[in-house]
Task: structure prediction
Amino acid sequence: QTVVTQEPSFSVSLGGTVTLTCALNSDSVSTSHYPTWYQQTPGQAPRTLIHSTNGRSSGVPDRFSGSILGNKAALTITGAQADDESDYYCVLYMGSGIWVFGGGTKLTVL
Amino acid sequence: QVQLVESGGGVVQPGGSLRLSCAASGFTFNDYGMHWVRQAPGKGLEWVAFIRYDGGDKDYADSVKGRFTISRDNSKNTLYLQMNSLRPEDTAMYYCVKAKKIAAKIYYMDVWGKGATVTVSS
Result:
């Protein structure tokens, strides 16, 4: 069974930098998984931040960036703002039209 | 401006059926694939299904395969999700999501609707 793992929670200081990761239980994450990242605040629909590892969606501030770090996908927020406090989800493409989400990371901005 | 408006949610007994609709506007509907994604209360996101722009290709999560059917009516700019044999674990917010092609036969989830709530309970 495919399991995508994210840190359950993370905290960052206002103005600081944080890197959230997305791992696969059975394999290393690569660009072929087209890692995609979403931000969701309570009661709202998700918003697309990054697609295809490092493609920033329209209107997304450049303090959000995506990459592959080692064997994981990563989302880095540089210069965290108060309104970055949200849940962040990654999703990976597993082939044959199938996508699998991670469990999400709850980010707190201190 | 892309708008996706889900409807048809509600409360249904286990074993029952429900059909969700998603009215799309602000883009050329028949040019784009579409996804359904769900989120159980207090839980994370789960991809449910995808349909290609012309309805010719459909994919499903194992958790719904054989019970749910995704379809579309391009003449009405509407996406559907027919849900049969519903279980309590199908209780969730269901999001309609416009897809964007990133590679051959690969479409990620791009623009999200606000969702429709489905509750399966006796």
Notes: Chain B is about 0% helix and 55% strand.
